[in-house]
Amino acid sequence: MADPVALITGSARRIGAEIVRTLHANGMRVIIHYRNSGQEAQALADSLNTSRPDSAAILQADLDQPDQVRQLAQDALACFGRMDLLVNNASSFYPTPVDQADDADWDRLVHSNLRAPFILSQKLAGALRQQQGSIINIVDVYAEKPLQTHTLYCMAKAGLAMMTRSLARELGPDIRVNGVSPGPILWPEAGQMNQQEIQDATALKRCGTPQDIAQTVLWLGTQAPFVTGQILAVDGGRSLTLQGS
Fold first, then answer.
1. Which of 33, 59, 138, 213 is the most exposed, having the fewest neighbouring CB atoms within 10 Å of its CB?
2. d(CA 2, CA 58)
3. How big is the CA angle at 177 (ends 214 and 182), to the nearest 5 degrees?
4. What is the pTM of this model?
5. CB atoms within 10 A of CB 33
6. Strands 85-88 and 176-182
7. Of 89, 85, 160, residue with least CA distance to 129
8. What is the DSSP letter of 237?
9. Residues 132, 185: contact at Cβ < 8 Å?
10. Do the beta carbons of residue 5 and residue 31 sit within 8 Å?
């Protein structure tokens, strides 16, 4: 049988790239989605195809544009002719103080974090059903306990958490749908002032690694046949004490 196929959004760099490498190392063919990081996506695919020919492909799409998201789903199916795992990893993240947020912020944060995952799930459900496949949504600890000045982001991630649970009911028994909720893993590239405070607030008193998220995605996506509708916090115990930041 042909190797199973995974589409991972926002996967040219950072945590997404680690998810790609982990799934590929465990026998999957991978489709690397990117928005602007074309060189990084191509380099990652080239390295994977060197180790196993015709096992990685790249696709570009702006997830803020619904028509491009629908085209991404169509193109992803055309890459290898099947779909076994959808990982909705791509995410926009930045502050939106209530007196400054505008329509463009709504579009950027809600489309990438909520609408695009829904459209991809919708358009790929038929193919996933054929393979008894799985959907993994990358949520956030702030979906439950808000981050100061990030209302739109928190709203979108809270919607993604509910979408995870709702689709698990609607798409079962053929498709499992779960979420991974990272805590402090990689700091935002724009920086974050209270890094030590956040790290000290975890029960484990340290940050996690991208591999922690990737291994969780691998387990939920391929090794947990009786788990669906769950959102697993991979946060070092941060959510035990989180009261908003």
1. 59
2. 19
3. 35
4. 0.93
5. 29
6. unpaired
7. 85
8. T
9. no
10. yes
110 three-class SS: helix
Categorize the per-residue pLDDT at 238 as very low, low, confident or very high, splitting at 50, 70 and 90. Answer: confident
- List the structure tokens of 14: 């950072």
How would DSSP label each residue in 169-207? HHHTTT-EEEEEEE-SSS--TT--TTHHHHHHTSTTSS-
Q: What is the pLDDT of residues 145-178, one digit of tens each?
A: 888 999 999 999 999 999 999 999 999 999 999 9
State the Cα–Cα distance between residues 27 and 22, nearest whole angstrom.
9
153 is catalytic: yes
Enumerate the H helices of the chain as residue ranges.
14-25, 38-51, 66-80, 103-110, 116-130, 151-171, 195-200, 210-222
Name the residue ranges covered by the structural domains of the chain.
5-240
Tokens representing 171 are: 């798409």
Q: How far apart are CA 30 and CA 19, in angstroms?
A: 10
- Confirm if 30 and 23 have CB atoms less than 8 A apart: yes
What is the topology classification, in CATH, of domain 5-240? Rossmann fold (3.40.50)
Selecting among 34, 94, 142, 153, the annotated active-site residue is: 153
Backbone dihedral region for residue 13 (phi beyond 0: left; psi -120 to 50: alpha; all else: beta)? beta
Token pair 């979420």: residue: 179
Distance CA 87, CA 121 (A): 10
Identity of the amino acid at 97? P
